[in-house]
Design goal:
The protein is of the alpha/beta class and 375 residues long. It has helices at 31-45, 144-164, 185-198, 230-240, 243-251, 253-262, 274-287, 301-317, 322-344, 367-373; strands at 2-5, 19-24, 70-79, 95-96, 102-104, 117-119, 134-135, 177-182, 211-215, 293-294, 297-298, 355-360. The strands form 4 sheets. It has a 6-stranded mixed sheet, with helices on both faces. The protein has a two-stranded parallel ribbon with strand order 4-7. Strands 5-6 form a two-stranded antiparallel sheet.
Length: 375
């Protein structure tokens, strides 16, 4: 795979956590009608998961479509797979083991391309290493489970779009696919694992190099980006100090206090935001590791359930509102709709691929995107 920095003038493709198939009707009039038809087809093509699971998302499911429709373009929206915590507790008594490394080679116009290099996580055995868990994983790294999740997803996409629909060729065609990722290692590796399922090595011509187009963090819209948009930060702060937000945290204050004590985060300013506690505990729960204890006070499964309900609500509340939703995901949705509309109007460029795989890294996977696509 070749990591390629995507320039600010290049087309923006959509991100999220759902899978979208677009089929063009024989005759449709009006932008709104065609868009409504597209959204209804999304519901036709894929079944919604019966219940939400943070640890394991559902896979896309094939359903036959009416014979008078022809598939023209597909955009896939996905988050990264299972990972280690991004938030490290003051005391970590667990072990995270990651078997994945990154094989790289330098490609430049000024020097010859020569050899490969392997990027490995190395944790020194010094005084600082006491501030992280045992093992060989860095914070936020894609786990072996996460690699498997995306590999299986890629296999499922191959079954649907190569096997069932016949939309993609059996062999990899670089002109047919566009892969985009945020500039986060776990997201890039998720794309690599997904592509191993979608187009395994024996389906690629010898010497194939697949471009993974990476957004610079300063300009990406792959997650709510407050750096180029300070207004978004203002709105988020307003929501986080609202009466509803404060009241919900206050209602769970005893549980939060207990968790802070057991995790030794009382008075640690970084963990003032309870979603950072939830981040660490979510990973322990998904990996079936022990929950933190201090003396005889331990975080219980019931404690985590209550905390996760609160932070799930917060992740939706932080995007609730017309303006904040536009600033969170307006560019993503606008570009997705524009691409589909160009196909409808036969205005798409020959450079536009048939299939777009897009990965996002952060922030509870953008619920406002799901709201739009499931209306």
């Amino acid at each position: 795979y070749q990591r390629r920095v995507r320039g600010p003038t290049e087309r923006n493709f959509s991100l999220g956590r759902s899978f979208v198939g677009f089929l063009r009707p024989c005759r449709m009039n009006g932008f709104v009608a065609r868009l409504s038809f597209f959204f209804s087809l999304f519901l036709l093509a894929f079944s919604a998961p019966v219940s939400y699971s943070y640890c394991q998302a559902g896979l896309p499911a094939y359903q036959p479509t009416p014979s008078n429709l022809k598939m023209k373009m597909v955009q896939v929206f996905t988050r990264h797979g299972d990972r280690t915590p991004a938030s490290v507790l003051p005391v970590e008594n667990v072990t995270y083991t990651c078997k994945s490394n990154e094989l790289m080679s330098l490609e430049s116009t000024s020097v010859a391309r020569d050899g490969h290099y392997r990027q490995k996580v190395y944790i020194s055995n010094n005084a600082f290493s006491q501030n992280i868990w045992k093992g060989n994983c860095k914070p936020g790294q894609l786990s072996d489970v996460g690699i498997t999740q995306h590999h299986v997803m890629g296999q499922t996409l191959r079954e649907i779009y190569v096997g069932k629909f016949g939309f993609l060729d059996q062999s990899f065609d670089p002109k047919a696919l566009f892969i985009r990722s945020t500039d986060v290692w776990r997201t890039i590796q998720s794309a690599e694992a997904n592509l191993l399922g979608l187009y395994p090595p024996d389906s690629r011509p010898p010497g194939t190099i697949i471009d993974i187009n990476v957004d610079p963090a300063s300009v990406t819209d792959g997650y709510p980006n407050t750096d180029p948009c300070p207004r978004l930060a203002q709105l988020q702060k307003k929501i986080q100090t609202s009466a509803a937000w404060v009241q919900r945290e206050a209602a769970l204050s005893n549980v939060i206090k207990k968790i802070r004590y057991a995790t030794r985060t009382t008075g640690v300013s970084y963990f003032d935001q309870v979603d950072r506690l939830a981040d660490n505990l979510h990973c322990r729960v998904c990996t079936k590791l022990s929950l933190p204890c201090q003396a005889d006070v331990c975080v219980s499964q019931d404690d985590t359930t209550q905390l996760f309900k609160l932070t799930d609500w917060q992740s939706f509340a932080i995007t609730n509102g017309t303006e904040v939703s536009k600033l969170n995901a307006g560019l993503l949705i606008q570009d997705a709709i524009t691409l589909f509309q160009n196909v409808i109007d036969n205005k798409s460029s020959k450079k536009d691929p048939l299939f777009k795989l897009n990965g996002v890294a952060e922030t509870s996977s953008r619920p406002e995107i799901c709201d739009v696509f499931w209306t």
